[in-house]
Amino acid sequence: MAGQSHHTLDLPAFDAPVRVLIVVAPYYKDIADDLVTGARATLDAAGAEAEVIEVPGALEVPAAIGIARAGGFDGFVALGCVIRGETTHYDTVCNDSSRALTLLGLEGACIGNGILTVETYDQAAVRADPAGQNKGGGAAAAALHLVALTRRFAKARA
Ligand SMILES: Nc1c(NC[C@H](O)[C@H](O)[C@H](O)CO)[nH]c(=O)[nH]c1=O
Ligand SMILES: CC(=O)[C@@H](O)COP(=O)(O)O
Questions:
Q1: Domain boundaries, the chain
Q2: Cα(77) to centroid(ligand 1), Å
Q3: Residues 6 or more apart from 63 whose CB is under 8 A from it?
Q4: CA nearest 94: which of 74, 110, 118?
Q5: pLDDT of residue 151
Q6: What gap in Å lies between CA 14 and CA 138, rounded to an integer?
Q7: Which end of the chain has less Cβ packing within 10 Å, N or C?
């Protein structure tokens, strides 16, 4: 429902360093910049170290995360923006990027999905705005929660 607020979990606390890779598609540059600003602020607030890499479009984000899994990161933040055009390509970019991120998650990658899928540029702008819906920050928080969960169960097995 438009305007309905949702519950937000507190950020997890960590007793060891956390390294997070932000993978962003700056297909819509101003939107992407806002998403990265929001994600960085949330990672900073949790004391996590952030690195950023860029890929051309949303379809490349999951592949880049798959490649970067060899880099020793604890988590990943997937950022980008898909705006409906005239053809069915919108559905391909939205569905395939989302599905691939979900599959990586099921393999144990700690990923927050902040790829916006919208009808208009204005919808994207209010969602990316760090002082607005801050979806970049939300995706970073999601990644951190999965990192915390991974560490919790790793400890329980040790
Ligand atoms: N239309 C959008 C794209 N399309 C490009 C694809 O993501 C991809 O880079 C291309 O098909 C080459 O593999 N990407 C976005 O991020 N946002 C769009 O709205
Ligand atoms: C989401 C897209 O891929 C979109 O930008 C493509 O636009 P179109 O369907 O007009 O080619």
A1: 19-157
A2: 18
A3: 55, 100
A4: 118
A5: 97
A6: 18
A7: N
Q: Which residue is catalytic, options 6, 7, 89, 145?
A: 89
Round to whole Å and give the CA distance between 136 and 37.
Answer: 7
Rounded Cα distance between 31 and 20, Å, is: 20
Per the listing, tokens 């051309």 go with 56
Given a cut of 80, is residue 4 above it in pLDDT?
A: no
Query: Does position 75 have pLDDT exceeding 70, yes or no?
Result: yes
Nearest CA to ligand 2 atom 4: 85
The sign one gets for the Cα dihedral 28, 132, 97, 11 is: positive
Q: Report pLDDT digits (tens) over 139-157.
A: 999 999 999 999 999 988 7
Cα-based distances in Å from 71 to 19, 81, 122, 130:
10, 25, 36, 28
Element (H, E) at 135: helix 135-157
How many CB atoms lie under 10 A from the CB of residue 134? 23
Q: In 3-state terms, what secondary structure has residue 25?
A: coil
Query: Could you confirm whether 89 is annotated as catalytic?
Result: yes
Q: What is the ipTM of this complex?
A: 0.96
Decide yes or no: CATH 3.40.50.960 for domain 19-157.
Answer: yes
Nearest residue CA, atom 10 of ligand 1? Answer: 57
